[in-house]
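so my prof wants the structure for this chain in the tokens format not the other one, which i didnt know existed until like an hour ago. anyway here's the sequence
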Amino acid sequence: MDNASNRSTSQPLTITIKSGSDKFYLEDFDDGKAQDWISNSGNWIVKDNSYRHQNGDGEYISVYDASTFTNYIFSAEAKPDWINNFGLVFKFQDNQNYYLLSIEVSSQKAYLNLVKDGQISKIDSSVYEGGAGTNYSIEINCKSGKTSVKLDNEIIFNQISTPEFIFGKIGVYTWWNPVSFDNIKVVESDEETGIFRMRDVSELNVYPNPLSGKNMTVNLNEYVRSFQVWIYNMDGKLIYEEVKHNNSQFNYSGLKTNSPGMYLLKAIGDGTLYQAKIAVL
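here's what i got, hopefully its the right format
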């Protein structure tokens, strides 16, 4: 409706996105901040351009809370002070449900664990070479319900079944061990090349846009086996996420309940990244 009270029908808004990077997330903490990282407890600080857990008296997790990921390679560098455990969490749903890679320095063993409903169970274990005060390079590759892990470029877990959660957040883990984490990166995984490359051009239809009513339709313009959708406000807060299977369209009616303004929609399906800005009146 315009200022003269005349009604008109909004046409679909087509947005063309050109690829710019294969990186979904990169944090080196060089700015002295750990933006959007949230811990369950403990003393987490940015020190010497790394994300450091100071305590050595318990079990602690900190999670990157601004986004979830699916089919990805999650990598980080870590330096433990002591000979106890440290590691990474992935496919994180909440504090009771996630996967955990735990590296036990004292025994030089690594454990791949599932935490479900607060109960931890071991999926697999492996040996490695390393020690306290050593820099570790860790890479977790999650793809199609299977997980592979490299430690210092050596494969320690290969195509282990991890079907419990489709997507989730990433995080870091310590157990009675002060640890520094750095150069945390997430890129999209590809079974053949190991690295995701976005297509040169992708199109996304969002209508109506601007949104004045309750219902919004998003069309990917092509059938995909599955895609994941996120909606963020302009402060970077995640307000909606969903996974769709065997579809190319979804409808959403909750955005109008949020404050008027601009929102960012991101969708990933079959190797294509889509983005659009949505105006809510």
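also thought this was worth mentioning. DSSP finds no helices and 21 strands in the chain.
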